[in-house]
Amino acid sequence: MRELTVKAVIENIQAVTEFVDEQLEMLNCPMKAQMQIDVAIDELFSNIAYYAYHPEVGEATVRVEVTEEPLAVIITFIDNGAPYDPLTSADPDISLSAEERQIGGLGIYMVKKSMDEISYEYQKGQNILKIKKQF
Amino acid sequence: MKITKTLNGRKLTLALEGRMDTSTAPELEAVLKNHLDDVEELIIDMAKLEYLSSAGLRVLLGAQKTMNKQGHMTVTNVNDTIMEIFEVTGFSEILTIA
Q: How many Å apart are CA A57 and CA B2, to the nearest integer?
């Protein structure tokens, strides 16, 4: 298990992505799964950066764990900000035209569709969001 | 993300390279804001784009709405990862993908 704690700001998405990718590459993670994970990092970490501590700035921890048989990676996002369960947001209506479309909720929806598991809990003042991807 | 602009009359091609995410999508938004005025045909070339997140979808949706009023927009050279994102989110119905 490895983890990285950084300020939850947009500028750190790249550092978090590189931290996770480095470990995915050691596991020979297929490129497509890696890109899906990178998209998930962008969606989840940007949510923390925008909302968790607004208007203050706080820290977020990203933890990477590996399980075997089947080989999978579990990435946990932890922050001490306002309680927020993204899994309660309604799925967007993806059948609407361009004019009627709303973007809210699309990011978390993409994460739900591309990961094998996603879970949320609020414990001891922490938002703990976990995603699991098999490959 | 690198954006290469090619203007040919009223046809603008924007070739994207790298990743379109929360950090980089504003770069495309800025280019669109400044260069779409007399454009009737907008081509977004994704041959060298690795992936996009919802921040990128938001900018594409804005571009599509603008082009619905003044011409048309086509997205080209979409890789498998990006195509799946378009399909999952219903953007494959909104965008013209060639």
A: 29
| The token pair that represents B95 in the structure block | 């965008």
Residues of B in contact with A106 (CB under 8 A): 54, 57-58, 89
Domains of chain A as residue ranges with CATH: 2-134 (3.30.565.10)
Residue B52: give its domain's CATH number: 3.30.750.24
Cβ-defined contact of B81 to A99 (cutoff 8 Å): no
Domain of B32 in residue numbering reads as 2-94
- What is the reported pTM? 0.95
Local confidence pLDDT in tens for the 98 residues of chain B: 999 999 999 999 999 999 999 999 999 999 999 999 999 999 999 999 999 999 999 999 999 999 999 999 999 999 999 999 999 999 999 999 99
Do the Cβ atoms of B22 and A114 come within 8 Å?
no
The total of other beta-carbon atoms located within 10 Å of residue A109's CB is 21
Q: In whole angstroms, how large is the CA radius of gyration of chain A?
A: 15
Q: How far apart are CA A45 and CA A43, in angstroms?
A: 6
Are the beta carbons of B61 and A110 separated by less than 8 Å? no
Query: Which chain A residues have a beta carbon less than 8 Å from that of B65?
Result: 98-99
Q: How many domains does chain B have?
A: 1
pLDDT at A103: 80
What is the predicted ipTM?
0.92
Measure in Å the smallest separation between the Cα of B5 and chain A Cα atoms: 24
